[in-house]
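Reviewer 2 asked us to include a model.

Predict the structure of this chain.
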Amino acid sequence: MLYEIVWILYVMGIILFVGIGVFGLILSLSARFPKMKVIGIIFSLLSICIGIYFATRWEAEKKEIQEITIRLEEVIKKSMSQQRK
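Predicted model (structure tokens):
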């Protein structure tokens, strides 16, 4: 359960970065000054690249994240059972 929550939050972060990048590209094209266009395009492409980087890192770190979340679930279950006693 915890793994799925972490996965959903991770995907939402990736979507946020890519979405901001695409939105920034669209807005930067409507900028009046050439320097503002260039700065907007650079930040937008950087945001998109960050999203792509995190998407690729998920696949590389997937097993380690699963192990950590399984351990956390066990700790949470133990602490919940101790509180009930």
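Residues 77 and 83 are 10 Å apart (CA to CA). DSSP finds two helices and no strands in the chain. We have added this to the supplementary material.
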